[in-house]
């Protein structure tokens, strides 16, 4: 464990001990009920609470010990630093995770440009007799490129989650754990605040559910797009119904609705992030977080524009742009903020286990 990690954990521990003595904010989110189960905080306990924290910031604006008080409590920032460090430390390989989070915009732009250029060259290997997008890139070639780019990052994420599970004391999972965790994730319960009015992400005493709704739009939009690809795969291989598909078909309806939700959600997340106080999060990785949001939005937007341009000469340029953003999103999955979804769901499952203990 690095010196930096120890320093982050020690500061979070100091603040949690003060919070645990006060307990004024125990109704805000799942962090505070979990905090009250402990008298002393092991490193794994702190990492668990850091990944339970959704950075809604309600506790900061309600805290009587926040700056300029001598205690200098800023629990959202302290937990954000530990949470960020847990991803960078546990996900393999570590140097790539730290590099993206600190220089995310540049890395994203370079990788999108590189993959777009590669795919622009690849589409010259056009399939014979293909229709739709397959006229530009053969189906088997597309699978050969994207399947490893999707599966290999999942291996990296799995390594990180295995380490996180051991660190935080995760146990054998039962159905009740999954039901509780997925219900919380589906409702974005911890972004609603203990009072149901949302969080204070927009600065000061302004409770709003805007961030919660934006996250829900992105999450459900992404799931719809993933479902679109999955359904299309089943139709292609099991039903011998290759693309292109008409507008009123399951792949198109799922993909278009998911793309619209992702564009709307990422747009609102960018607006809120620009208005928020960067000192209540991990300022060091602001660029990496913004890069990830931009990449999600760009992936959805280029997909919608590509569909609108179907049958035109613009497809030859738009297709490598869209596929380049998708490929970049896959390749950066373990190192961008997308990994937080895996860690947060794991934290919610472990939280359900601790409730039953």
UniProtKB/TrEMBL annotation:
Coiled coil where? none
Name the residues that span the membrane: 107-125, 137-161, 217-239, 291-309, 315-335
Instruction: Give yes or no: UniProt keyword Transmembrane helix.
Output: yes
Under InterPro entries, the record lists: Citrate_utilization_prot_B, NarG-like_sf
Q: Which SUPFAM superfamilies does its entry note? A: 4Fe-4S ferredoxins (SSF54862), Respiratory nitrate reductase 1 gamma chain (SSF103501)
Q: Which UniProt keywords apply?
A: Membrane, Transmembrane, Transmembrane helix
Under what name is this protein listed? Tricarballylate utilization 4Fe-4S protein TcuB
Which species does the entry assign this protein to? Answer: Paracoccus onubensis
